[in-house]
Write a structure and sequence with these properties.
heterodimer, A: 208 residues, mainly alpha, Four Helix Bundle (Hemerythrin (Met), subunit A), 7 helices, elongated, B: 548 residues, Cytochrome C Oxidase, Chain A, two-stranded antiparallel sheet, 2 strands, 65% helix, 1% strand, globular
């Protein structure tokens, strides 16, 4: 393969990397809009039915949500350290940091699972819920909670798989530009940021 | 077609054209060449156009009599639903960006391909997958929600393959997002040396604007449809009041996507027309920056007008007043474009070829559609004509009269470049005029019907409306002939012995006319270097090659 063909359609490697990064950022912008619909719905609900919204939010386990926030933030830090390690030419350190981020991601899902199980026992799940709530606004809050955190959990799962892929790929670990690891970390930060908005929107709304 | 090419031919030792580069199925279905992918899209959207047109034919035939003799009530609902769904998501949205845009965006900026060629192929496969699912819906029971999927009809009452349709539209959204992402990165990162932002063709500006909408609006539709599916399948009630949901929430979320979707359909058309007008006038476009930024302004303001679909849904009157104001404001950049095209044509040396006829037809129909859009943005008028044929006529003037006419104009303009063949100009002119006449006979009576009170989506109507309905159906037959004609003479031009196209049959400016027709595999021989402003008529040497 001729040298100039390697990065086709780009003229050189730097330009190709720029384009990869831009593509990832644009994709993340569209992800933000995906969650934006749910946030818009939740905020409209809160404006229209403030007291009901707060009462329903009181059903959530605040300390589990808080623990998960800490877990996910730490995980995001690990992903950032993996990028730094790859850039510094330390592939083993990068792999270890990715592994840590990945395990923390799994811990997040485990906590979320415990939380869902508890909510199922309390009869807060959609379809079983109406008896426990005063009025439709509270039910809608709970439904939005399940849709929002459920969609977020799907993204966490995808993020874990992506990080596993990056950790297993020798080429990704040894890339001094950290292209793959960098883009995966960006995705993981987005998952983190979405949670940082879900947490106050859903959990902190119930704090009196 | 009277002008000889007015500037230099590409080097004569041109490399193999992209069409001659392999004839196997594999060389087409696994290609990463943006030009071949554009042709894959052309064939597929033509197929879906026929599906949607078939449904439209059923609708117009059924409406010939006031009793709706042809279709059952349910059959009629299914016919207009599938017409809307197929035409919006499987024809209009991909038509110009994925065929003409895919082919031209890299060439116009002097690149050899889109930034992510494999992603481009993937987005075609995603489109085909979602299209197949839609075809399954057509044969497997149909869907009766209309293309808008309003809840609680779609989530509770509708029968038929609602979830399958929703999944199909959801999947097609990924194809759209990937295309938009690819265009934005390409325009940012792959412009040829010297191709500054101020030298971008207006076609590129409008595709940049539409890509922003692709990326930012489509995911909102995705989440909305996902919520409808979740409600139908597992009872997570976000929209159904009995499950705690809010049906109006659906309309907000849906129109937050679907009003920008209207601009998805029309922005690329505006870009095409800017190219057609300047090429026919052989003049630099009047007010380049106004036309370029009008595209961006439409994309931005278009995100803030969705409430005008909900004037009678019980939204607050203050919100309605704001949405009304913003909806009127979004007409300003569109009007700027129309004025600038008109001024560009003023006192120009105009070549009246088929592409110009399509462009002029576009301007007339777009103005009619736009002005009735202003009427609909007024609260009082909208209350009177909501959900009537007035609305139907309005959006068909924009989507069919506007977008489809521009698509045909663009196809005629770039056909010599895409295929390397010239079509029969006389037939093309006749088709352009026939489409304009047929369109107006079909849809103008619908304005009158709507204003008199004929509601949309009903097939049984009072007998006094029959005359206008019959006129409309006759016009549709004429329109069908107009649309069928290009299929014949364009395919005819491909047969052995068809006339070969020179590199620049229109004497137009723009990088795409400096390469051979059809272009070589990598679009240009060597890296083009741009040294002139866009539309620098009269043409001298708008582009030079490696020597700068």
């Amino acid at each position: 393969m001729a040298e100039e063909e390697r990065f086709a359609p780009f003229a050189d490697a730097a330009r190709a990397r720029d384009a990869d990064r831009l593509g990832m950022l644009i994709f993340l912008a569209s992800e933000i809009m995906l969650f934006g619909g749910i946030f818009a719905a939740a905020l409209a609900l809160r404006l229209e039915h403030g007291p009901d919204y707060a009462a329903a939010a009181g059903h959530l386990k605040l300390w589990l949500g808080t623990a998960n926030t800490a877990i996910l933030l730490t995980s995001s830090l690990m992903a950032a350290l993996a990028v730094e390690a790859a850039r510094a030419g330390a592939p083993r350190r990068a792999a270890r940091a990715l592994l840590a981020a990945l395990l923390l991601g799994c811990a997040f899902l485990a906590v979320k699972g415990v939380e869902y199980a508890g909510e199922y026992r309390e009869g807060l799940m959609p379809g079983t819920a109406t008896a426990h709530f005063d009025g439709p606004a509270q039910t809608l809050f709970m439904n939005l909670y399940f849709v929002g955190t459920g969609l977020h959990a799907v993204h966490v799962t995808i993020g874990i798989l992506l990080m596993a892929m990056a950790a297993l790929s020798q080429r990704a670990r040894q890339d001094r530009n950290a292209m793959l690891i960098g883009n995966v970390a960006l995705y993981w930060h987005l998952v983190d940021v979405v949670w940082l908005f879900l947490y106050p929107t859903l959990y902190l709304a119930g704090v009196r | 077609m009277t002008d000889e090419p007015r500037f230099e031919h590409p080097p004569e030792e041109a490399a193999t054209s992209y069409l001659a580069d392999g004839y196997s199925l594999r060389s087409w279905f696994l290609t990463t060449d943006h030009k071949r992918i554009a042709l894959l899209y052309l064939v597929s959207i033509t197929f879906f156009f026929l599906v949607g047109a078939g449904a439209a034919a059923l609708i117009r035939l059924d409406l010939l009599t006031p009793q709706g003799d042809l279709l059952s009530n349910d059959g009629y609902n299914r016919a207009f639903s599938i017409h809307g769904i197929v035409m919006v998501w499987f024809f209009l949205i991909p038509a110009i960006p994925n065929v003409l845009g895919n082919f031209l965006v890299p060439i116009m900026i002097g690149a050899r391909d889109l930034a992510f060629p494999r992603l481009n192929l993937l987005s075609w496969y995603i489109y085909i997958l979602s299209g197949l699912l839609t075809l399954y819906v057509v044969v497997g029971g149909g869907v009766d929600t209309g293309w808008t999927f309003y809840t609680p009809l779609s989530s509770v009452y509708a029968n038929g393959a609602v979830v399958a349709t929703i999944v199909a539209v959801f999947i097609s959204g990924f194809s759209t997002i990937l295309t938009g992402l690819n265009f934005i990165v390409t325009i940012h990162k792959l412009r040829a040396p010297g191709m500054t932002w101020s030298r971008l063709p207006l076609f590129i500006w409008s595709h940049y604007a539409v890509s922003i909408i692709f990326v930012l609006a489509t995911p909102v539709l995705a989440i909305t449809l996902l919520l409808v599916a979740a409600e139908r399948l597992i009872g997570i009630g976000v929209f159904d009041p009995r499950l705690g949901g809010d049906p109006l929430l659906f309309q907000h979320l849906f129109w937050f996507y679907s009003h920008p979707a209207v601009y998805i359909m029309v922005l690329p058309a505006l870009g095409v027309v800017s190219e057609l007008i300047t090429a026919a006038a052989h003049k630099r476009i009047f007010g380049y920056w106004f036309v370029a930024f009008a595209s961006i302004a439409i994309a931005v303001i278009g995100f803030m007008v969705w409430g005008h679909h909900m004037f009678v849904s019980g939204q607050s009157v203050y919100a309605s007043a704001v949405f009304s104001f913003l909806s009127i404001a979004v007409a300003v950049p569109s009007a700027i474009k129309v004025y600038n095209w008109t001024v560009t044509l003023y006192k120009a040396d105009i070549a009246i070829d088929a592409p110009l006829l399509f462009a002029l037809g576009f301007i007339g129909l777009f103005v009619a559609g736009g002005l009735t859009g202003l009427m609909l943005a007024m609260l009082a008028i909208d209350v009177h004509v909501t959900d009537t044929y007035f609305v139907v006529a309005h959006f068909h003037y924009i989507m069919v009269g506007g977008s489809v006419t521009a698509f045909f104009g663009g196809l005629h303009f770039w056909w010599p470049k895409i295929t390397g063949r010239l079509y029969n100009e006389t037939l093309a002119r006749i088709a352009a005029i026939l489409i304009l006449i047929g369109f107006n006979i079909t849809f103008f009576p619908q304005f009158m019907l709507g204003y008199e009170g004929m509601p949309r989506r009903y097939h049984v109507y009072p007998p006094e409306f029959q005359v206008l309905h019959v006129i409309s159906s006759m016009g549709a037959a004429l329109l069908a002939i107009g649309y069928a004609m290009p299929a014949v003479y364009l395919i005819w031009s491909l047969l052995p012995g068809g006339r070969r196209a020179p590199a620049n049959p229109w004497g137009a400016s723009g990088l795409e006319w400096t390469t051979s027709s059809p272009p070589p595999q990598h679009n240009f021989i060597g890296q083009p270097v741009v040294v002139r402003q866009p539309y620098d008529y009269p043409l001298a040497h708008p582009v030079s090659r490696d020597d700068g």
